[in-house]
Design goal:
By secondary structure, the chain is of the alpha/beta class. The chain contains 5 helices and 8 strands, in the order βαβαβαβααββββ. It folds into 2 domains: 1-51; 52-184, Vaccinia Virus protein VP39 (Rossmann fold, 3-Layer(aba) Sandwich), CATH 3.40.50.150.
Length: 185
């Protein structure tokens, strides 16, 4: 799949410089537009030349201290995780979140369900949220990845946790999956 344009944003100018340097080394720099700005201040009309299909976010987890807790509360993410998700959804119908391996999946489900009205404003009848584990070496859970939006296909074998938000007032949540199990939310 060819992606004609990628927008890379970070509030830290040094990280942008490193990313720009790496993009030159791998000869992908012409297709990347770098933005040095607070994510919450991005403006769809001013900061992007093209429509945004997907927003990928790895919000600050709070350093290595996230791994000290058995279950990581999304309230630890600064800036506020709810504001980050709201901003991402305002930029694109499809969002990918890269989160700590010990993220409280029930809390995540509750937060995403609270945005039902935002999802309902898009043209799709339902928005599927998929939560899966990122495992290295076949054994070690490193992170969870959350896919939100109509672009992402759901693997029907992921059935330990399921939730679909439809454009209605009906909500269901049955999510208490083990941390290391890929889940469908």
């Amino acid at each position: 799949m060819h992606v004609p344009r990628v927008y890379a944003n970070d509030i830290d100018a040094n990280k942008i410089a490193i990313a720009r340097h790496n993009s030159e080394i791998y000869k992908v720099d012409p297709s990347i537009s770098f933005i040095n700005k607070d994510f919450l201040l991005l403006d769809k009309a001013k900061d992007f030349l093209d429509p945004v299909d997907v927003v990928f976010i790895s919000p600050p987890w709070g350093g290595t201290s996230y791994s000290k807790d058995q279950i990581y509360s999304l309230d630890m993410i600064k800036p506020n995780f709810r504001e980050v998700v709201r901003k991402a959804i305002s930029l694109a119908d499809n969002v990918v979140l890269f989160l700590p391996r010990n993220t409280n999946v029930q809390q995540l489900t509750n937060i995403l369900t609270s945005y039902e009205s935002i999802f309902a404003s898009n043209e799709h009848k339902e928005t599927v949220v998929t939560v899966e584990a990122l495992i290295y070496g076949g054994r070690n859970l490193r992170a969870i990845i959350v896919y939100i939006g109509p672009m992402f296909q759901v693997n029907p074998s992921y059935n330990s946790c399921s939730q679909k938000r439809r454009n209605s007032s009906r909500r269901s949540s049955q999510c208490s999956a083990p941390r290391s199990t890929p889940t469908r939310a």
